[in-house]
Amino acid sequence: MVKEKDKFVALMQQEQSEFDLKFAEVATKCTSIVQYQEIEQFEEVASQAKAIQARLDDCVKQSKVYNSREGLTGNDETNYENIF
Fold first, then answer.
1. Which end of the chain is more exposed for a tag (fewer CB within 10 A), N or C?
2. 55: how many CB neighbours lie within 10 A of its CB?
3. For the segment 7-18, what is each residue's pLDDT rounded down to a tens digit?
């Protein structure tokens, strides 16, 4: 059973590393919105904002899953407050 737990923890850590990259990409997209300064670009900005919000919502859900898994395996929960 210990081997299975170790495998699960290793897989979870790998997934969290990928998640960190995904969140960094979303954060970069958030900061890139400031490039739009013309009112004519509002449709593009709105479209991007909706896409970013959907990805942020997904990140929030995923962070809760990871924290739950960490608790189940006895690991300290990762602080994801920068997502909220």
1. N
2. 16
3. 999 999 999 999
